[in-house]
Amino acid sequence: MKVTVSKNDLKEALSKASSTLGKGEDITSHFLLKIKNETQCDVLSCDPPRMFSITPLAGVKCEGEGQFTIDGKRLLQAINSIEGVIEISYTEGDISFKSSKGELSFSSLNPDNFPPWENLLSESEVANEDGNFTTNVMSDTLLNLKPYCSQNEQRQPELCMILFKEGKAFACDGFGLGMAKSEDFDDVELKIHYKDISSLNKFLKAYEGEALEILTHEKATFLRVSDGSTIGLMNIPFNMPDKITTQYAEAFEWTPRRVWKFNKVDLLNAISFLSSGASDGDYSISFADSEGEKFTSPQLEMKPSSGKGVLTCSLDSISFKPEEGVEVDPATIENLGERMWVDRYLQDKSEEGDDIASWKFNFLFMKRAIDVLSTESIIFGCNQESEKRGYMVFKNLTSNNVDVASVVGWII
């Protein structure tokens, strides 16, 4: 068997396939090249125990049919040092790698020992018939929800994932909940382990704007784009508790008791300024902004590392100021954060609960909610659940029209 291909085409395919290449001492550290005919060859890779990919090799000329493996790390190193056309030949367990600069020999292992992902793929069925789910939409969702995935596999394995279910996507670590929704999610049922998100994002970025076909098997789920490139995910045996996917599912429509809008840079600078004077490991910030004091700025406070006095920082909030004589309908505002901000201004507060004049939040939780946002302004609201508990609500609309809402706890 022989494969002839340009260095650039090979490098591009291996770059994509390397995101699921294993790092052990077994066959999963090898690429598997599968020759299908004279002009078609796929590169397969597998990162045990959860991930697998197929990447078609472009511009290839092949001789013979069959499959063989080649050491992944060494192959990637070799192609970075040469240019031009490359010949990879396989004969009775030995591999010859030829370029205009010279020839190398590589080890090869029995391809029959490669994990049987292809068998699972051949037995899978298409789960999303409408074809509206795209790599961009999924990438937006993973970016915004990854900060909320639990990483405690020993105590919370059921939370170590992003779950797509009933038109929404969820991630929760017990302290904060991130949710996303899009019309493109309508027939998407999917679990993505937090450890797989990085490799999956590389796949999505490589095929930006492509439609994603979802294929399901009782043991695995596969995502495939139009040229046949495929990434496989081993199914997660745990289920996210129903309470998580139902209790706050309507937060997309909520207008909290208080809503603020801040410049993102100013807010992050204020947090950084205060924390520089606080004790290491102290992440608690007090937020004070009474409705009864109309001409004062919101005040942030922390305890100093010295234990004496109080660290303070004022922050300018952005007020909604409608045009005189122009009626504003929040329902016409696409961005849910902006809609929440305007709706809060328009609603009558006289029949609502008491003013939330002051409360405390963990600034690490606050930052993870806003670090993923590319907007210049941050809009969030807060509500009081009980005498000692409440939550912050963040909302956003991504560039690919994915609505994102997150609920992050705070303590009075």
Q: What do these coordinates show?
A:
By secondary structure, the chain is of the alpha+beta class. The protein has 9 helices and 25 strands. Strands 6-2-3-4-17-16-15-10 form an 8-stranded antiparallel beta sheet. A hairpin with a 4-residue loop joins strand 23 and strand 24. Helix 4 packs antiparallel against helix 5. The longest helix is centred in the middle third of the chain and has 12 residues. The radius of gyration is 26 Å and the shape is elongated. The termini are far apart. 37% of the residues are buried. The model has no long low-confidence stretch (mean pLDDT 93).
Summarize the structure.
By secondary structure, the chain is of the alpha+beta class.
- Over the alpha carbons, how many angstroms does the gyration radius reach? 26 Å
Strand order of the largest sheet: 6-2-3-4-17-16-15-10
Separation, N- and C-terminal Cα atoms? 70 Å
Oligomeric grouping of the chains: single chain
The number of E-state strands comes to 25
Unreliable spans are none
Helix content: 10-25%
Structural class label: alpha+beta
The best one-word shape is elongated
Number of helices in the DSSP assignment: 9
Q: Would you tell me the overall average pLDDT?
A: 93
The major β-sheet equals:
8 strands, antiparallel
Could you tell me the strand content as a percent range?
25-35%
